[in-house]
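Q: Sequence in, structure out?
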Amino acid sequence: MPSSAQPRGTGGIKELSAPRLRAGTPERAGLDPGPLRRLVTEVRARIEGEHPWAAGAVVIAGRGPVVAVEEAMGWAVRYAAYDETTGRGVELPPDERVPVTVSTPFDLASLTKLFTAVAAVQQLERGTVGIDTRVGAYLPEFRAAAEHGITVRQLLTHTSGLRAGLPLYDCPSDLARLRMLRAEVPVTRPGTAYRYSDLNTLLLQHILERVTGRPLDVLVQDGVTRPLGMTATGFGPRPGAAATEDQRRPWAGADRGMLRGEVHDENAWALGGVAGHAGMFGTARDLAVFCRTLLAGGSYGPARILGPDFVELMLTPPGLGFMVDRPPFMGELARHGAVGHTGFTGTSLVLDPATDTFLVLLANAVHPRRRSVPDHGPRAAAATWLARAVRGSRARTLRESTGDSPRSPS
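A: Exactly. Output:
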């Protein structure tokens, strides 16, 4: 790996400290319980209100190895269809609806990219992939990417210049999809600008499968989910998952009807359900384990998926696979190097090495139909209340250490 890509030390990442998650009180987690109650109340209000953000959701938050909040609300399945005439979902009779539980799997959508990124960084650590090596060195048949000198680093940081996506679902065959992807030319010069693109992780998938000789779902299972005990997380189909969309044209790219347990993303579906950018399902508790592992420097219990230096490499700005300090969905957590990602279906996770906190919010916000512009409001609000729970706990500790107590209003 070139010297410019070498990890710089563990910084705020804990090294080889990997206790397993356990349930506990906010106080035991070092969090102020008041803001945590507001976190749950606000998410619940957006689920149970007159114009719900999502049919159902699970939220889990904690600090260190302590889970301080784990709540399920709403419905995994609420609607039978979407009525285009009325612009509303066709609700199922109450006895046919399925409530969300803390064990409900959700379509993770673009949170899949984080697992692809970890699989890529594992290959960096093993020396089978170079971070500044050009895509053409691994995939010479991807002539457009090769000719424009796109590198692995640019794929991981969304600076390849590739556009957001391609209608692969409209191609008549797998070969036609592959030809379209191979021919895709960057729209801006690689390395000059940030442009979020599903194509980056699709190219990463092809690189990983080429250098390892194994499919992406096997790489993720063997390298991440199985060693961490994330038994409810993996590529679909996933029976019992929260329902997503009544997927029909013109608002969607395919006519598939109401989806449950089948990947929502049309390109991932067209690619057989296993794609670098989407296709995974998982539970909030499993994703909390994923967050805890990264906060602990790549280890969880006896398992190690990355070394601490390579975790730091992933999480240091601009982030490899992860977004760093993004207030639109991280709220007030986006201050000192918080990292995370969102998924189109309504999923998100944030972990903050500076405060050793994590937040996972899984929702089926596209049930019964997607919005044209995703609403990040509930995600940002939840992250803000978690940040305030950290600050509130610090203030309380300071008062107790100095013997001060809060004054009553005059």
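The two ends are 63 Å apart (CA to CA).
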